[in-house]
Design brief:
The structure holds 2 protein chains of 2 kinds. By secondary structure, chain A is an all-alpha fold. Helices cover 78% and strands 0% of the residues of chain A. Chain A has one domain (8-112). Chain A contains 5 helices and no strands. The model of chain A has no long low-confidence stretch (mean pLDDT 92). Chain B folds into 4 domains: 4-133, Response regulator (Rossmann fold); 146-312, P-loop containing nucleotide triphosphate hydrolases (Rossmann fold), CATH 3.40.50; 317-395, Orthogonal Bundle (Helicase, Ruva Protein, domain 3); 402-442. Chain B is elongated, with a radius of gyration of 33 Å. The chains are: A mainly alpha, B alpha/beta. The A-B interface holds A 9-10, 13-15, 20, 23-24, 27-28, 30-32, 53, 56-57, 59-61, 63-64 and B 11-15, 17-18, 21-22, 25, 56, 83-84, 104-106, 109.
Chain lengths: 113, 448
């Protein structure tokens, strides 16, 4: 499967320091799975405002890692969460976010290996 | 370049790390990351130069933290970094005193970099301004006005009293006695010393331009008024306006000035809008204004309005030993400025300085001793190094206390030099016989 992330923004920021890029990857892998789990839990508990707040926090990380298939999705989850708008699509969007990120986690772990 | 301490307050580990890395690319930045608002507030004693504050924080919101920072550190720039582009929130935060509002998008890092550079420049400019302000204040500190004579000590007391209030002060004295220096000392030792001191030399501005210079004008108010111009009274708002050589103002403008002082408001030429003014007034003149009132050259009502606290500066010739004290002070300062090493003043030179009548007062003394310091050999100013420019050589000659015969010789020589050694012309001018001159030439008393 082709890469669904793009580290070019991070690489530009790093100014040639691959150590920095790798340490950012490590931080991403360390924190984001927990955040996704928390987002899922809050959704299951019906705390939509919290869902929006967590999506808000994850959003810049997704942009930074160039995970383009879900940049719109995370914004939609954020907006619906803030507006406490639990429509039929929200569940699917959260699912899409989780699944996509799991693939990204695997690909990044491979990169680190 | 000084180290700029940057606080990054961001609970998103990844974004905080990115900001830390990016802002640390400048080795003159020292970046500290905090993950919540409380940590940031608890560390303000570390004196950050700028804070990048995430809008959505766990314990306090960004706006709460901003308000608390502004309460205790109103001048500290706080840049809000937000995941959301929300104009109304941005406006509210800017109103609360935020320096800037940056959205976490692809331009965020560049905007952070620019904001940091701007803040660094502003901080450096502010520090420079503070330093210059301190320097100016210390330059015009009372202790820097030199003198021990009773005449100048009386002036010091009046300056101190003038600085304590915002009373109008009228400074009089001969040219070169230091009227402007006194005006500056009053301003820079007053409570408004961080506000502007605007000096206007009435004598130096053409009569037709003076009104616009003082009160300002609107664009197109008269031929040549291409742009709007703020007047000196407005410029001096909250501070001091110093009207030097007030005695030179024509009577028509005196009437307008009187009205401005009475109403405490100005109207720019070509405008109907009245502008309140609150500048303290200092005036100076070398003329005797009371005499000018008697002669009808100065309005009596304006004279009384401007008189306020009168400070009359004594001429240098009435200041006794201050002449030597000031001479040494000027020589030391000049030598230091020109890296000349210590330059002394011989007793002969001191005697010469004290016997002179100083028509140009302190200004002349300064010029004379600085020139003498240049001419002096081996770090010592001798009598011969001192020459007085403002008066004729006859006056200078009288200081030498010699015999009548020698005075005669010097006078004839002076005229011979002036009239190109024309004996006939000199004899006619001095009403002496040509033979007297020829005899003195023969005796080698004159150089021809």
């Amino acid at each position: 499967m082709s890469k669904i992330y793009d580290l070019s923004q991070l690489e530009e920021l790093a100014g040639g320091s691959m150590d920095f890029v790798m340490s950012m990857v490590d931080t991403f892998l360390e924190h984001t799975p927990q955040q996704i789990q928390e987002l899922q839990d809050q959704y299951n508990d019906g705390n939509l405002v919290q869902v929006g707040a967590i999506a808000h926090k994850i959003k810049p990380n997704i942009d930074l890692f160039g995970i383009t298939p879900i940049t719109t999705t995370v914004r939609s989850i954020e907006n619906k969460g803030k507006a406490e708008q639990d429509d039929a699509e929200l569940k699917e969007e959260i699912e899409k976010l989780r699944e996509t990120l799991e693939v990204v986690f695997d690909q990044l772990r491979e990169l680190r290996a | 370049m000084e180290i700029l301490k940057i606080f990054v307050v961001e609970d998103n580990e990844l974004y905080a790390k990115m900001m830390h890395h990016h802002l640390s690319l400048n080795p003159d930045n020292e970046v500290k990351v905090f993950h919540d608002g409380k940590q940031c507030l608890d560390n303000l004693h570390l004196k950050p130069g700028v804070i990048f504050l995430d809008y959505s924080l766990p314990n306090f919101t960004g706006i709460d933290v901003l308000r608390r920072i502004k309460q205790s550190h109103p001048d500290l720039p706080v840049v809000i970094v937000s995941g959301q582009e929300d104009v109304s929130t941005a406006v509210e935060l800017l109103r609360e005193g935020a320096y800037d509002y940056i959205v976490k998008d692809e331009n965020a890092k560049d905007r952070m970099w620019k904001a940091t550079n701007n803040i660094r420049e502003n901080t450096e400019l502010r520090q420079e301004l503070d330093r210059l302000r301190e320097e100016v204040t210390s330059k015009y500190d009372f202790s820097n006005i030199k003198g021990n004579s009773p005449a100048i000590k009386r002036v010091f007391k009046l300056i101190e009293k003038a600085a304590r209030t915002n009373i109008t002060v009228s400074i009089t004295g001969e040219t070169g006695t230091g009227k402007e220096l006194v005006a500056k000392a009053i301003h820079y030792n007053s409570i408004n010393n961080n506000k502007p001191l605007i000096a206007v030399n009435i004598a130096a501005i053409p009569k037709d331009l003076l009104e616009s210079e003082l009160f300002g004008h609107e664009k197109g108010a008269f031929t040549g008024a291409l742009n709007k111009r703020v007047g000196k009274f407005e410029e001096a708002s909250g501070g001091t306006i110093f009207l030097d050589e007030i005695g030179e103002m024509d009577t028509q403008l005196q009437a307008k000035l009187l009205r401005v002082l009475q109403e405490k408001e100005v109207t720019r030429i070509g405008s109907n809008q009245v502008i309140k003014i609150n500048a303290r007034i200092l005036v100076a003149t070398h003329r005797n204004l009371a005499e000018e009132v008697k002669k009808g050259n100065f309005r009596e009502d304006l004279y009384y309005r401007l008189l306020g606290l009168p400070i009359e500066l004594p001429p240098l010739r009435d200041r006794g030993n201050d002449i030597i004290l000031l001479a040494k002070h000027f020589v030391d300062a000049f030598a230091k400025e020109n890296r000349m090493g210590k330059v002394g003043l011989s007793s002969d030179a001191q005697k010469k300085l004290q016997s002179y009548h100083w028509p140009g007062n302190v200004r002349e003394l300064k010029a004379v001793v600085e020139l003498a310091a240049v001419l002096a050999d081996e770090g010592q100013i001798e009598g011969e190094d001192i020459s007085f420019n403002s008066t004729s050589s006859v006056n200078e000659m009288l200081l030498e206390e010699t015999t009548l015969k020698e005075y005669n010789r010097k006078i004839i020589q002076h005229f011979l030099d002036r009239y190109d050694k024309n004996v006939v012309q000199v004899a006619k001018k001095l009403e002496i016989g040509k033979s007297t001159i020829y005899r003195m030439v023969q005796n080698n008393e004159l150089d021809i």
